[in-house]
């Protein structure tokens, strides 16, 4: 994971994205309506319910403006496709994201396999505007659509032995050219402690900007854990397994001193190759100070009471 310069061609003037916002908002209302109609099994009555997936704001709770749709979908990290930021948006277009099944099993009372389309009906997507801070020291503000992972976990009922959650991305070298590179430990995997997975900020995302999640952003379904470095937010998940012991993950296997299990955003703990004290918000020119827990300290600090955050990074 190395830093790259952002081409200025990817920066969208505010007026353009504001008008696009209005347009997307209308789309969101239409798609929420059709989602409801579909779940009512053929009812032709138009819905008057308020939409759960409109774009609610142009800013996050700290007042930071959202990144443009173009930035978010054009500048991505997805090693299954490529190691650079711009080609995944092109290479991912052929990914077969429908139908997509997600298996949830391990130390649980009710193991289940879901189609993503059914998950969206079971747990209607809500909007979550989160900062995403990559370990490479760039960041974005993204309006995700998704649902708290804890809703799904409560339904499958972890047993008392379950202490961690393990996530796995699709393994399919025919669709993922990067998986031909045997120097990486494919498939991409990630893990959370059970209480981190149960935290209300932790979501499974199926959309952004009121639309379905694009394949390059991890469609049809990905994890988003906003207080941790971006690599924890694993894309294109096919398997979630409840386990007893702390699992290793893709980046941990490659370089544990740089990419720890917890990977909480922390401006005090440097990566072996660079400082984490500041970051470049995509679309800006002046660096920002990196915030402890990416600005979510009030919500998540209690999870780590008594833990030395300089060792458990
Ligand atoms: N399967 C998979 N998930 C992944 C990655 C990846 O290469 N493969 N990259 C990670 C990294 S390093 C980051 S910063 C975020 C980027 O998410 P975005 O491209 O939607 O901004 O996805 C994470 N999830
Ligand atoms: Mo990242």
Describe this structure in words.
The protein is of the alpha+beta class and 313 residues long. It has a domain at 92-304: Oxidoreductase, molybdopterin-binding domain (Sulfite Oxidase, Chain A, domain 2, Alpha-Beta Complex), CATH 3.90.420. The chain is built from eight helices and twelve strands. Strands 3, 4, 7, 8, 9, 11 and 12 form a seven-stranded mixed β-sheet that branches. It has a five-stranded mixed β-sheet with strand order 2-1-10-5-6. A hairpin with a 5-residue loop joins β1 (101-106) and β2 (112-115). The radius of gyration is 19 Å and the shape is globular. The two termini are 17 Å apart. Bound molecules: ligand MTE and molybdenum atom. The ligand Nc1nc2c(c(=O)[nH]1)N[C@H]1C(S)=C(S)[C@@H](COP(=O)(O)O)O[C@H]1N2 binds at residues 1, 76-80, 132, 134, 169, 188, 217-218, 230-231, 233-236.
């Amino acid at each position: 994971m190395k830093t790259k310069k952002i081409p200025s061609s990817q920066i969208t003037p505010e007026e353009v994205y504001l008008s696009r916002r209005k347009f997307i908002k209308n789309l969101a209302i239409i798609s929420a309506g059709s989602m409801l109609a579909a779940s009512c099994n053929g009812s032709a009555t138009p819905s008057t319910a308020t939409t759960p997936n409109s774009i609610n704001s142009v800013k996050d709770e700290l007042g930071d403006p959202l990144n443009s749709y173009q930035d978010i979908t054009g500048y991505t990290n997805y090693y299954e496709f490529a190691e650079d930021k711009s080609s995944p948006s092109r290479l991912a277009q052929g990914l077969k994201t429908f139908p997509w099944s997600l298996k949830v099993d391990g130390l649980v009372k009710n193991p289940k396999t879901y189609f993503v389309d059914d998950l969206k009906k079971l747990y209607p997507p809500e909007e979550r505007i989160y900062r995403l801070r990559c370990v490479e020291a760039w960041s974005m503000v993204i309006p995700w659509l998704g649902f708290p992972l804890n809703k799904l976990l409560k339904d499958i009922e972890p047993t008392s032995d379950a202490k961690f959650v393990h996530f796995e991305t699709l393994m399919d070298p025919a669709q993922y050219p990067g998986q031909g590179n045997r120097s990486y430990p494919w498939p991409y995997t990630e893990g959370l402690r059970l209480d981190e997975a149960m935290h209300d900020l932790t979501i499974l995302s199926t959309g952004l900007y009121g639309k379905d999640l694009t394949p390059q952003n991890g469609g049809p379904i990905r994890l988003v854990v906003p207080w941790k470095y971006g690599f924890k937010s694993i894309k294109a998940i096919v398997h979630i397994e409840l386990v007893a012991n702390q699992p290793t993950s893709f980046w941990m296997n490659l370089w544990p001193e740089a990419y720890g299990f917890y990977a909480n955003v922390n401006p005090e703990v440097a990566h072996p190759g660079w400082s984490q004290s500041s970051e470049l918000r995509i679309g800006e020119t002046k660096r920002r100070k990196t915030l402890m827990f990416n600005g979510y300290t009030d919500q998540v600090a209690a999870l780590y009471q008594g833990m030395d955050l300089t060792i458990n990074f």
